[in-house]
Amino acid sequence: MTDQHVVVMRLWLLVAVLSVGCTAAPQESQILDAPVVPFDELFAPADTVRLDSSIIIGAIMFLDVNQEGDFLVTDFIGGGVNLFASSGEHIRTYAPQKCLPDDEDLTPYSARFAGRGHVVTKDLGDRVVVLTADGRCISATRRMLHRTKGFCASGDSLFFLVWPDPYITSSSHNSVAVYSLELQSLRDIPVEWPKFPRLNFPFSGKWDRSIDCFGDGPYFTYLESMDAIPVRVDAQSTQQRPEFYSPRPQDIQRNMSREERSAEWNKYLTTDAVIALTSQTRMVLYRNLADQWQLEGVEGAGYHYGISIASNVGRFPPRSTITPDQPLAAGYGYIYSQGDHEPLSDGDVGNPLILRYRFILPRDADD
Predict the structure, then answer these.
(1) Strand order of the sheet with strand 229-230?
(2) How far apart are alpha carbons 289 and 268 in whole angstroms?
């Protein structure tokens, strides 16, 4: 055999090996059971935050928390976004409406902290506004390229989960759209298509909570998801299965009325949100728990929420729990729920209290 033949043979073998490597099926994720434990085994009361009553919040629709413990509160009734210190002292009111002055319909529904102290707001019509920490307009758009289910911020990048519309597209995949803080489109990352697309199009879980950003990238959920799904396919080698989880058997049927669709949605367990408890710990929320999982002797039966806690890096085995208090937000090792409105000394009613709970790292966690 000549040297030329040897070279050709080696190249052929290299191509064959690479081809096998590219076409090999990805390894399936390992599923770990997440047993239900008492709420106080995972979370301990830390304190109660009283928001400055000089600013009255009509309704807390969205809450975000930064590393310093400051609160970004979206008031859907008042139409504003307010920044409070971790103590509850009012710092600043943001007015995203001034960035789109000729758009009377702009009412921010969600707001998140982003890189360099920026604040990003989004409304129900996909109007997005980016402001500096002191409230100056950086960028704004009346309409994103796609309708989105939620967004999260990681440094100077914004990740929007596209709302899958089975009546418009027949794609076999959905996407996460990545934008800069100047709202320039950077790229689209393909993600898996929902198992039940018609369920996911008319309905949403906890608004704008279908995606969150972690140290290893964004994770997202669909309404039928057992666990949050990493955008990076190699980001998660395990999935957790809460003890109360039972898979939804079917999609919404095409010819159902609005009332029938709503009844079908409420009939089965629904995955409501994914929230970053820490940069390496995901918290997934569920509603419509089966009757056997409702807490006895607790006010609000039928409206209890399931919570699963899992480590993105396998630091501890997953856990799940049940609570009558809907978590508003989480971050940096704490979760936040809404309490009753604070009674004021003059007999009036102030802002809702924010209940802060500290996450208790499981005893079997790796050091």
Answers:
(1) 211-214, 217-220, 229-230
(2) 7
Q: Which residues contact 307 (CB under 8 A, 6 or more apart)?
A: 42, 283, 284, 285, 286, 320, 321, 322, 323, 327
CB contact burial 65-94 (16+ within 10 A = b; e otherwise): bbeebbbbbbbbebebbbbbeeebebeeeb
DSSP state of 97: G
Count of positions (residues) in the chain: 367
Alpha helices, H only, 233-339: 258-267
Per-residue pLDDT tens over the stretch 22-52? 333 344 568 999 999 999 999 999 999 999 9
**Contact criterion met (CB below 8 Å) for 44 and 358:** yes
**How high is the pLDDT of residue 105?**
83
Q: Compute the radius of gyration of the chain from its Cα atoms.
A: 23
The whole-angstrom separation of Cα 148 and Cα 349 is 36
Pair 167, 112: CB distance under 8 Å: no
- The secondary structure element, H or E, covering residue 209 is none
Report strand pairing: 238-242 vs 30-34.
parallel
Q: What is the pLDDT of residues 60-83, one digit of tens each?
A: 999 999 999 999 999 878 878 999
Handedness of CA 340, 343, 344, 350 (dihedral sign): positive
Residues 33, 53: Cα–Cα separation, whole Å: 44
Token pair for residue 159? 């990740």
Of 67, 228, 247, the C-alpha closest to 150 is 228
Average pLDDT, the chain: 87
Query: What tokens does 28 get?
Result: 């399936």
Inform me whether the pLDDT recorded for 110 exceeds 50: yes
Region label for 302, one of left (φ > 0), alpha (ψ between -120 and 50) or beta (otherwise): left
Q: Which residues pair with 155 in a beta bridge?
A: none
Task: Give CA separation, 88 vs 74, 82, 111, in Å.
Answer: 15, 11, 18
